[in-house]
Write a structure and sequence with these properties.
Elements: H1 9-15, H2 18-44, H3 49-56, H4 59-67, E1 72-83, E2 106-114, H5 119-134, E3 139-144, E4 152-159, H6 162-171, H7 173-185, E5 188-205, E6 208-209
Helix pairs in contact: 5-7, 6-7
Length: 212
């Protein structure tokens, strides 16, 4: 056995025994399969309140509760969606009649599968957009969606009004310029952008109550 005083994660992995490496690889695989299963279940739920309540009472949701010390529930209904997620349209094709009121809170979900050869240029374009996002008036919450560590990128954001979301997405320079670059750079092999009306918000995130 190799004994090392280097306690960095990489060093410990390199110096681990074959059995330990095999166990870590198995755990990593099981973790990926678990997240895949969770999101498949999440987006398989239909958009009715009764079905959402049934899901909340189900074993998967109860398992999350047992493992969690904090919880935020945001109930949504889709009002616009374009693109695909794993070659599917998970939010369907919302009808215009479901558009939110002009002054109501809204949420946005973005998801993209990066082209490997375009990843470096994409990541160089992210910091200005991210910094401007956090400085935009009307933003209530912004999160990354943990689908996979590399190649599959997703975001969820909550906004006080449709006007605030539109201001960031289409009028503020960093994001507007990134959107204009997208066809030219061909960053994405697949992309999806969806907007939702917020039905209710309950709970807290990172120790603070999210008031929508």
């Amino acid at each position: 056995m190799i004994v090392s005083h280097d306690l960095t994660v990489i060093a410990m992995i390199v110096n681990a025994s074959v059995i330990v490496k095999a166990v870590m690889a198995l755990l990593a695989l099981l973790s990926m399969l678990s997240w895949t299963y969770i999101f498949m279940k999440l987006f398989a739920i239909r958009r009715t309140r009764a079905q959402a309540d049934a899901f909340e009472r189900g074993p998967l949701h109860r398992g999350w509760d047992r493992r969690s010390h904090e919880r935020l529930d945001v109930r949504l209904t889709p009002v616009a969606s374009r693109g695909r997620w794993s070659r599917r349209e998970p939010f369907g094709q919302p009808r215009p009649a479901t558009r939110p009121p002009a002054d109501g809170p809204v949420a946005a979900v973005t998801r993209a599968r990066l082209r490997p050869r375009k990843a470096a240029t994409f990541w160089r374009a992210v910091p200005p957009v991210s910094a401007d996002l956090n400085a935009t008036p009307g933003l209530l919450l912004a999160l990354g969606i943990g689908e996979a560590p590399i190649g599959l990128q997703g975001t969820f954001s909550l906004w006080r009004s449709p006007a605030d979301l539109t201001e960031f997405a289409h009028r503020r320079a960093p994001h507007r310029d990134a959107v204009r670059r997208t066809p030219r750079e061909a960053w994405y092999a697949e992309e999806l952008f969806a907007r939702f009306a917020v039905l209710s918000v309950r709970g807290s995130f990172a120790g603070r109550t999210v008031d929508a």
